[in-house]
């Protein structure tokens, strides 16, 4: 899996009131609003242009990135971190127990669950990796580490 290296000029919204209810994590394991903003600023440099053009405003993109930042341990980074597993602490799909976030896609009015690793690929993968993964069925991608709750971008398996 290869990350995109494009620069971003998106602005950062500071409204992160919807947070970590029901995750079962202790307060010290959850990023503060300021820590989320710092992480998102780092990630914005790698968001692929396809993602920037998909969402109408930088605020919507920011809220998606914030959900991802809140869904992992305070010390974990699924985009720019090292090669360790990044275990998802957020919402899981009710049937297959795979990591999901809630979002409303452009042109839709109803919020839906979307697999985190598919969102990460859309946001950060280079064109070759993205195109290869788009050929796969519309389900969560396999993780090379074998952990279905891992959301480390570099663990997404290009091969089944």
Describe this structure in words.
The radius of gyration is 15 Å and the shape is globular. It has helices at 33-44, 49-54, 58-70, 116-124, 127-134; strands spanning 100-103, 112-115. With 160 residues, the protein is mainly alpha-helical. Helix 1 crosses helix 3 (58-70). Strands 1-2 form a two-stranded antiparallel ribbon.
What keywords describe this structure?
160 residues, 30% helix, 5% strand, 2 strands, two-stranded antiparallel ribbon, mainly alpha
Provide a brief overview of the structure.
By secondary structure, the chain is mainly alpha-helical. The protein contains five helices and two strands.
SSE inventory with pairings:
Layout: H1 33-44, H2 49-54, H3 58-70, E1 100-103, E2 112-115, H4 116-124, H5 127-134
Antiparallel strand pairs: 1-2
Helix pairs in contact: 1-3
Biased composition (Polar residues): 1-11
Region (Disordered): 1-27
